[in-house]
Amino acid sequence: MPVLAYLHRLCGELADILSADIEVSGTEASVPTAQILAIGLIVNELATNAKKHGAGPIKITFTSDGAGQFELCVLDEGTGLPEGFTMNSKGTRGLGMKVVTVLVEQLDGNLTAHPNPAGRGACFKVAFPQR
Ligand SMILES: Nc1ncnc2c1ncn2[C@@H]1O[C@H](COP(=O)(O)OP(=O)(O)OP(=O)(O)O)[C@@H](O)[C@H]1O
Ligand SMILES: [Mg+2]
Q1: What is the number of the ligand closest to the CA of 50?
Q2: Which helix (H) or strand (E) element contains residue 13?
Q3: Which of 29, 55, 41, 58 is nearest to 95 (CA)?
Q4: Nearest residue CA, atom 11 of ligand 1?
Q5: pTM, whole model, 2 decimals?
Q6: Which of 18, 22, 46, 52 is the pocket-test mutation for ligand 1 (most atoms within 8 Å of CB)?
Q7: Rounded mean pLDDT of 7-31?
Q8: Is residue 78 lining ligand 1, measured as CB closer than 6 Å?
Protein backbone atom coordinates (compact mmCIF):
# COMPACT_ATOMS: atom_id res chain seq x y z
CA MET A 1 0.00 0.00 0.00
CA PRO A 2 1.43 3.46 -0.91
CA VAL A 3 2.28 5.02 2.45
CA LEU A 4 2.71 8.65 1.37
CA ALA A 5 -0.68 8.74 -0.39
CA TYR A 6 -2.19 7.23 2.75
CA LEU A 7 -0.52 9.85 4.98
CA HIS A 8 -1.78 12.66 2.73
CA ARG A 9 -5.33 11.38 3.06
CA LEU A 10 -5.10 10.70 6.81
CA CYS A 11 -3.52 14.09 7.56
CA GLY A 12 -6.11 15.88 5.46
CA GLU A 13 -8.75 14.43 7.76
CA LEU A 14 -6.68 15.03 10.92
CA ALA A 15 -6.12 18.66 9.91
CA ASP A 16 -9.90 19.13 9.76
CA ILE A 17 -10.54 17.32 13.04
CA LEU A 18 -7.75 19.14 14.93
CA SER A 19 -8.13 22.47 13.10
CA ALA A 20 -4.39 22.32 12.49
CA ASP A 21 -2.12 23.04 9.57
CA ILE A 22 -0.51 19.66 8.74
CA GLU A 23 2.03 19.26 5.95
CA VAL A 24 3.03 15.85 4.62
CA SER A 25 6.20 15.29 2.58
CA GLY A 26 8.76 12.62 1.76
CA THR A 27 9.20 9.70 -0.57
CA GLU A 28 6.52 7.27 -1.69
CA ALA A 29 7.01 3.63 -0.70
CA SER A 30 4.94 0.48 -0.63
CA VAL A 31 4.28 -0.75 2.89
CA PRO A 32 2.29 -3.81 4.06
CA THR A 33 -1.21 -3.08 5.39
CA ALA A 34 -0.34 -4.15 8.95
CA GLN A 35 2.45 -1.56 9.03
CA ILE A 36 0.18 1.10 7.49
CA LEU A 37 -2.29 0.66 10.34
CA ALA A 38 0.42 1.10 12.99
CA ILE A 39 1.84 4.13 11.13
CA GLY A 40 -1.62 5.72 10.95
CA LEU A 41 -2.23 5.29 14.68
CA ILE A 42 1.24 6.64 15.54
CA VAL A 43 0.69 9.73 13.35
CA ASN A 44 -2.73 10.21 14.92
CA GLU A 45 -1.26 10.25 18.47
CA LEU A 46 1.79 12.36 17.64
CA ALA A 47 -0.12 14.92 15.56
CA THR A 48 -2.74 15.18 18.31
CA ASN A 49 0.10 15.82 20.79
CA ALA A 50 1.63 18.41 18.46
CA LYS A 51 -1.70 20.25 18.42
CA LYS A 52 -2.41 19.79 22.16
CA HIS A 53 1.06 20.44 23.64
CA GLY A 54 2.84 22.22 20.79
CA ALA A 55 1.92 24.73 18.10
CA GLY A 56 1.55 24.67 14.35
CA PRO A 57 2.36 24.16 11.60
CA ILE A 58 2.74 20.39 12.05
CA LYS A 59 5.07 18.63 9.64
CA ILE A 60 5.01 14.91 8.87
CA THR A 61 7.80 13.39 6.82
CA PHE A 62 8.21 9.83 5.57
CA THR A 63 11.53 8.87 4.03
CA SER A 64 13.45 5.79 3.01
CA ASP A 65 17.24 5.53 3.22
CA GLY A 66 17.25 3.24 0.18
CA ALA A 67 18.87 0.49 2.27
CA GLY A 68 15.74 -0.97 3.83
CA GLN A 69 15.20 1.55 6.63
CA PHE A 70 12.19 3.90 6.85
CA GLU A 71 11.93 7.05 8.93
CA LEU A 72 8.74 8.78 10.02
CA CYS A 73 9.00 12.20 11.69
CA VAL A 74 6.38 14.40 13.32
CA LEU A 75 7.50 17.97 13.98
CA ASP A 76 5.82 20.97 15.55
CA GLU A 77 6.81 24.54 16.40
CA GLY A 78 5.62 24.80 19.99
CA THR A 79 7.69 25.35 23.11
CA GLY A 80 9.29 21.90 22.86
CA LEU A 81 9.35 18.91 25.18
CA PRO A 82 9.11 19.50 28.92
CA GLU A 83 12.26 19.45 31.05
CA GLY A 84 13.26 15.87 31.85
CA PHE A 85 11.01 14.33 29.20
CA THR A 86 12.02 10.79 28.28
CA MET A 87 10.11 8.18 26.36
CA ASN A 88 9.93 5.74 29.28
CA SER A 89 9.80 7.80 32.44
CA LYS A 90 6.47 7.40 34.21
CA GLY A 91 6.34 11.06 35.19
CA THR A 92 6.31 12.45 31.66
CA ARG A 93 4.67 9.70 29.67
CA GLY A 94 0.89 9.60 29.41
CA LEU A 95 -1.39 7.03 27.79
CA GLY A 96 -0.76 8.43 24.30
CA MET A 97 3.00 7.84 24.41
CA LYS A 98 2.45 4.37 25.84
CA VAL A 99 0.25 3.52 22.85
CA VAL A 100 2.88 4.94 20.50
CA THR A 101 5.61 2.88 22.20
CA VAL A 102 3.64 -0.37 21.71
CA LEU A 103 2.91 0.48 18.05
CA VAL A 104 6.58 1.25 17.40
CA GLU A 105 7.48 -2.16 18.90
CA GLN A 106 5.04 -3.75 16.44
CA LEU A 107 7.07 -2.15 13.63
CA ASP A 108 10.32 -3.46 15.20
CA GLY A 109 11.16 0.21 15.24
CA ASN A 110 12.92 2.74 17.38
CA LEU A 111 11.30 5.91 18.77
CA THR A 112 13.30 9.01 19.70
CA ALA A 113 12.39 12.56 20.73
CA HIS A 114 14.45 15.61 19.78
CA PRO A 115 14.20 19.38 19.61
CA ASN A 116 12.88 20.44 16.20
CA PRO A 117 16.01 21.22 14.13
CA ALA A 118 14.08 24.19 12.65
CA GLY A 119 14.65 26.01 15.96
CA ARG A 120 11.56 25.60 18.12
CA GLY A 121 9.26 22.75 19.03
CA ALA A 122 9.45 18.98 19.25
CA CYS A 123 10.49 16.30 16.79
CA PHE A 124 9.46 12.66 17.20
CA LYS A 125 11.27 10.15 15.00
CA VAL A 126 10.28 6.56 14.31
CA ALA A 127 12.87 4.47 12.46
CA PHE A 128 11.84 0.98 11.34
CA PRO A 129 12.91 -1.70 8.88
CA GLN A 130 11.16 -2.25 5.56
CA ARG A 131 9.32 -5.59 5.37
N1 LIG B 1 4.67 17.83 20.73
C2 LIG B 1 4.84 18.01 22.04
N3 LIG B 1 5.31 19.21 22.52
C4 LIG B 1 5.51 19.40 23.85
N5 LIG B 1 5.27 18.46 24.80
C6 LIG B 1 4.82 17.27 24.39
C7 LIG B 1 4.58 16.97 22.99
N8 LIG B 1 4.15 15.70 22.90
C9 LIG B 1 4.10 15.22 24.15
N10 LIG B 1 4.49 16.15 25.06
C11 LIG B 1 4.58 15.99 26.52
O12 LIG B 1 4.59 14.60 26.82
C13 LIG B 1 3.52 14.28 27.71
C14 LIG B 1 3.03 12.89 27.42
O15 LIG B 1 2.29 12.81 26.18
P16 LIG B 1 1.13 11.75 26.05
O17 LIG B 1 0.61 11.78 24.67
O18 LIG B 1 1.64 10.46 26.54
O19 LIG B 1 0.05 12.26 27.09
P20 LIG B 1 -1.06 13.38 26.92
O21 LIG B 1 -1.07 13.91 25.51
O22 LIG B 1 -0.81 14.37 28.01
O23 LIG B 1 -2.39 12.59 27.22
P24 LIG B 1 -3.11 11.51 26.27
O25 LIG B 1 -3.10 10.24 27.05
O26 LIG B 1 -4.45 12.07 26.02
O27 LIG B 1 -2.32 11.36 25.00
C28 LIG B 1 2.49 15.37 27.47
O29 LIG B 1 1.64 15.53 28.58
C30 LIG B 1 3.38 16.58 27.23
O31 LIG B 1 3.83 17.14 28.44
MG1 LIG C 1 -1.20 12.58 23.83
Answers
A1: 1
A2: helix 3-18
A3: 41
A4: 81
A5: 0.96
A6: 52
A7: 97
A8: yes
